[in-house]
Amino acid sequence: MENKITQKEINQIVWKACDTFRGVLNSNQYKDYVLTMLFVKYVSDVWKDKKSFYATKYNGDETRMERALSNERFKLPENATFEFLFENRNEPNLGELINTSLERIEDANRSKLDRVFRSIDFNSENNLGQTKDRNRRLKNLLVDFAAMDLQPSHLDGNDIIGDAYEYLISMFAGEEGKKSGEFYTPSEVSTLLAKLLNPQPGDRICDPACGSASLLIKMAKEVGSNNFALYGQEVNGSTWALARMNMFLHEIDDATIEWGDTLNNPRLLEGDNLMKFNIVTANPPFSLDKWGAEAAVTDLHNRYHRGVPPKSKGDYAFISHMIETTYEDTGRVGVIMPHGALFRGSSEGKIRQQLIEENLLEAVIGLPANLFFGTGIPASILIFNKAKGNNTDVLFIDASKGYEAGKNQNRLRDSDIKKIVDTYFNFKKAELLNTENGVVIEDKYAFRATLKDIQNNDYNLNIPRYVDTFEEEEAIDVKQTQETIVALKKELVTVEDKMNKYLTELGF
Question: Which UniProt key words apply to this protein (predicted)?
Answer without folding.
Answer: Coiled coil, Methyltransferase, Restriction system, S-adenosyl-L-methionine, Transferase
